[in-house]
User: Which sequence fits this backbone?
């Protein structure tokens, strides 16, 4: 299938679309031995694409579900050499996390090298649900559950409507559409609670299942479809 050269080259992680456009203008992108022009398309499975003298290699798309343990960051590199998730994952392709989980949280994290897939999950317009197991330091009040479900003002922005399924006095499952950093902790802190444990257990209809901390597996097409299933 043919795609614009800018998209193909940037998706391969070689450089940004803007840089790709510059290389095309400079005659440094060759397709089937002919200099390309802006707007040209190519099929990486049929066409020979050469960028600055080197053949373009398109990695096959990979999709992983990973149980991020508490204490690890979702950054790919860390100058301070703290615990990072890439120390736990071994793949031929360079994959990166879709979204994030803060260091003190654990649970389901998706990793991929497919930029379109990652954008579809993170972009607010797709409203992908994320479900968390939450344990707080004291019994949560009914009125506070209702406030969370209606939405709270956090940093001058109202959170979207949420859904809570209570498990015990201090435990519940929380389903949200929010992607803001540490938003669950901030909501609960505003209401006077401290989070003792926070585990993301599902994205869409895809759940952790039997995965244990530090474990990961590649997703099937059927499992990927569960993420977007309403």
Assistant:
């Amino acid at each position: 299938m043919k795609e614009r050269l800018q998209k193909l080259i940037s998706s391969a992680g070689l450089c940004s679309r803007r840089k790709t456009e510059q290389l095309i203008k400079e005659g440094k992108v060759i397709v089937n031995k002919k200099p390309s022009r802006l707007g040209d398309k190519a099929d990486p499975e049929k066409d020979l694409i050469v960028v600055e003298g080197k053949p373009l290699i398109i990695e096959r798309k990979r999709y992983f579900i990973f149980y991020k343990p508490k204490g690890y960051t979702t950054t790919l590199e860390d100058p301070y050499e703290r615990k990072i998730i890439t120390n736990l994952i071994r793949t031929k392709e360079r994959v990166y996390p879709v979204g994030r989980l803060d260091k003190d949280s654990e649970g389901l994290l998706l990793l991929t090298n497919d930029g379109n897939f990652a954008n579809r999950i993170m972009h607010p317009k797709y409203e992908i649900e994320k479900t968390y197991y939450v344990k707080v330091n004291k019994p949560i009040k009914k009125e506070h559950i209702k406030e969370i479900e209606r939405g709270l003002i956090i940093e001058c922005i109202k959170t979207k409507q949420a859904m809570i399924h209570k498990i015990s006095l201090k435990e519940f499952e929380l389903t949200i559409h929010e992607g803001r950093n540490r938003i669950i902790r901030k909501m609960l802190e505003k209401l006077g609670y401290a989070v003792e444990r926070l585990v993301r257990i599902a994205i869409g209809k895809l759940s952790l299942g039997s995965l244990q901390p530090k474990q990961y597996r590649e997703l099937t097409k059927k499992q990927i479809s569960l993420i977007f299933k309403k």
